[in-house]
Amino acid sequence: MRLKRKLIILFLFLGLAIVFGLIKGAVNIPLGDLLLKNNRLVFDLRLMRVIAAILAGSGLAVAGIALQAILRNPLAEPYLLGTSSGAGLAAVSAVIIGVSRIYLPLAAFLGAVLSIVIVYNLASDRGQVADKSLILSGVIISIAFSSLIVFLVSLFGNEAMHEMNWWLWGSLQVYDTKLLLLVAFPVILGIGIIYLFAQDLNAISLGEEEAKHLGIDTQNIKKIVVLISALISGSLICICGIIGFVGLIVPHMMRLVSGPNHKTLIPLTCLAAAVFMILCDLLSRTLFAPVEIPIGVITAIIGAPVFILLLKKAKRIS
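RESULT FIELD:
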């Protein structure tokens, strides 16, 4: 199936997912009625959730693709490498200090960069990084930072911080339009930049030595891609909290459809991840309505078995 046809199919799925995301919830409202004046607030809130889901799904999935390519590790993704927890810790710290919400993306970005630097250094041994060491270091840092987040939330137990307990497991309840737009810019820009490096990612994923023979400056590209991935993850933390496994599940699903070529993998994964995240958010709102389940719980329930299967596959190959 050609790329154009695959894109059209995914766009149709995305359109359907958006419609369901707008009309379904604790209370189902027909699309025509949503546009009425008395339902305008519900429409606006659900539309913001859908936009946040599209940004979160696409951004986290592309960040996962990029990290998997440059680290040549199929298990790499922002959540498992501790990037999300690092961004979350920095964002929570910024809230406690009283930093303006406008600067939260910057704080989260710095936290994400710091966490991935720590993980990489922990996993390094004489300049070499083993796959198992990298994942293990990422999980350790993720647990450590998540524990610090819970500690800070418990210590500074005002109402605003207690609301962040929900945010720690992921939530697409976005009420700040300005913050949503502010986050959208680095996420979309980051996805675009990673796509520009698609051919380089193809070469690096096959082997660093081979990429160097092709004249690719692997070290600089790896630094740029890590920073961009951290920027995407850190920015998204500010509006949707910590959501795991999206960067693991969707890229691997789409590799089965499109193959390993990043030129086609990245755009297809963007659309598929957007659909996936909207549907996960729909499940979180409707599965036990009117009770809402954090979206991070939904993605973890789906992602944990996928992670186990990939881990077993990696062991067989090694």
